[in-house]
Design goal:
The protein has 315 residues and is an all-alpha fold. It is built from 14 helices and four strands. It has a single domain, classed as ABC transporter involved in vitamin B12 uptake, BtuC. α9 packs across α11 and α12 packs across α13. The longest helix is centred in the C-terminal third of the chain and has 27 residues.
Amino acid sequence: MKVKQFATENIPLIGLIVLMAAVSLYSPSFLTVDNLLNILRQTSINAVIAMGMTFVILTAGIDLSVGSILAFAGAVCASMIAADTPLIVALLTTIVIGAALGAASGSIVAFFGVQAFIATLVAMTMVRGLVLVYTDGRPISTGNFDVANSFYEVGGGYVAGIPIPVIIAALAFLVCWYVLNFTRLGRYVYAIGGNEQVALLAGVNVARVKVIVYAISGALSALAGIILTARLESAQPTAGLAYELDAIAAVVLGGTSLAGGRGRITGTLIGALIIGVLNNALNIMDVSSYYQMIAKGAVILLAVVLDGRSKATSK
């Protein structure tokens, strides 16, 4: 019974292990240190965005604007670095801008009663337009100053052989895990997703919590934008397109319910790793990128179906 319970509660982890085992049998080079570090580096951006998305989905919301916020944050950060702005000032300003954009979406949801899907769809479109206006549709190079060289390390550097983006994602995970499991805000997030009306009657300031949750999503999207811009040494106006889909997929693969109130940040990290491993495996197998999208969709559908059945069985 304990084995069955463990399997039911850890379907994403088991899926990740099985996937890695299968790929390693196909290609021995899959489990090399260099390839695993490459997977972690490639996964770090989606993982950071998905962590913020987890907060939103746990409240029974959705945030479609994360890709656009990533692009705008990256453009602003690149222009500040190119202007030789002190690195810490550029990074903090960029994250604050991301949080403000997220909070704006959250305010529309919380105070005007607009559905999260519609509010963030509007935000996604408007912010993407803002990116194109700000960049004039052209990439923004970070330049070749000392600050720019230091900035590159954020996305392309290493510490003790570990890529800095991986370290940043790990730190973001630890903070999110702590907030959701050991703070009042975390309890409120689960309460709102479980039953918003009951949470309201219990004295939870639902509107404020929703604004904070979307601000967290925006801030983490901006952080992901910083990592991507630093790695490329430029901000691309088309950056972040469809990133919201991969982030939502990671959350769903991790076992978080789209209805809210149920899920774990650990599951989201595993979900992001599943997508990263799957992408890497398909590249190793030399599968066309067109088929990769179909394969990812099939895996996500399978995860949702299995998750739904396991929850129905446990009732």
